Amino acid sequence: MNEPFLFLGIGSHMTVLVIHSVLAMIIALVVAKMATRNLQTVPKGCQNVMESLVDGILTIGSDVIRKDLARKYLPLTGALAIYIFIANVIGIIPGFESPTGNVNLTLALALIVFFYYHFEGIRKNGVVHYFAHFAGPVKVLAPLMFPIEIISHISRIISLSFRLFGNIKGDDLFLAVLLMLVPWIVPLPAFALLTFSALLQAFVFMILTYVYLAGAVTLEEEAL
User: Fold this and answer.
1) How much is the pLDDT for 177?
2) pTM (2 decimals)?
3) From 139's CA, which of 131, 147, 161, 212 has a CA 20 to 30 Å away?
4) What is the share, in percent, of the chain residues with pLDDT greater than 70?
């Protein structure tokens, strides 16, 4: 973590986390407003960038889940991808800290995905059918498979939250050491690497959200 450079580090560390989390949200809202403020048939500037991003997310989502479902869940997956990327990138700026480098935020994001995909699975398939799927196709093995499935789904919370937290925390530590060693030399290759890592972690979180949603709402298709 880059405490020596914390520009907004007044108060407790939790205060810093909240400030930077809100800052990432504000930046995401401003970018969305800029992209939709003056919509044009032939997009330019911010609208062009955001439309390309949305098309890319839909294309990736369509490879994981049906196109109509990819579009349906775009508000969630797109918002998560944009917010997480901005929250990751903030930490690259000296004086700021990535809020995703704190497990409290990443755990909250993981819980949102966890509860939402279960909600969608129950809403689409019904409570009995949805949880019956956890028992597997062989009834004899149901007492064994059901607890394994429960543990597997709970482990997704840990996987989502700690993967994002661990990678961004490691990037923060790397940048802190780098800036302390060479504060007067612009480490451009390192900044480029960290930016790519921020984009990659946002992508991984987004694609896993689509994967979990696909597993929850397309039980009939899996059975075919």
Assistant:
1) 76
2) 0.86
3) 212
4) 89
